[in-house]
Amino acid sequence: MVTMGRELARAGVALACMVVWGLVMLVVKIERREEWAAGRRDKAATLRAYGGSLRQDWAFITQPGPIPERARMNRKDEQAAEHAKMAEHHDAKAAGLEAQLERSVFSDDPDAIEQLEARIAEHEAKRDRMRRVNALYKKGDVAGLAALGLDLERLRVKLAAAGPYWGDKPHVAYELTNLGARIRADRERIAAIRARTQRATAAEAAGGVLIEGGEYVRVTFAAPPERAILEALKAAGFQWGGGSWVGPRARLPEAVQEGRS
To answer: What residues form DSSP beta bridges with 218?
Structure first.
């Protein structure tokens, strides 16, 4: 038993190290994607600025026939569009990695619900700020933006440099949509954690094992069962998820039935 305990302890430490390392690597990947996206946007802005005042020269733009300088400007615009597209790609990848990182609050943490509620509040505040910035920018409210630490003219220059793909607001729709999705996902996790906690409490009241359902059942243990019971559940085709084992009632191991009071 002592040897098994030591092995389990070592395995637990190794697993914890792997989890921490995985989170660190996620942060590194996110930062790289954000750097790549920023670099692509800078390149796009530089290319779009090529030609300077000629871009406002209607006679130059509409003059018939081949004009080498105009052709170069067109090529620069095409290259800028490619860089902008790659910036979007890196932004999307970074958002996906951030979503993974956001989900790294473990459901069995004692304060998991408190962590998730704090994260929801943070994301809601961030989303509200984005909406306010967009509204103030649309109205041209210099004072309102300044109160948030933003400069209207700088925002206009930034949007002009970003090009049509960015739209006419400082914060694009997908930013708000992504935050909304994270908020909903965290609320769903809170509901799932509470439901699992309630099942565990019911299992304790039922003598240590709660069996729910009809043809297919959900088996919840108030405390981790013996290894033999876990192996029997696996052998019977039961699957673990959400703090319970789920499988066909007809194949429910006798050892589980015997564990009920």
So the answer is: 212, 246
Distance CA 161, CA 7 (A): 59
Q: How many domains does the chain have?
A: 3
pLDDT at 183: 92
Instruction: Choose among 133, 124, 128: nearest CA to 181.
Output: 124
pTM: 0.54
Final residue in a domain of this structure, among 69, 104, 139: 104
- Beta carbons of 80 and 48 less than 8 angstroms apart: yes
Cβ neighbourhood burial of 41 (10 Å; 0-12, 13-18, 19+) = buried
103-117 pLDDT per residue, tens: 666 666 778 889 899
Looking at the fold, whether 191 and 215 belong to one and the same domain comes out as no
Interatomic CA distance for residues 66 and 55, integer angstroms: 16
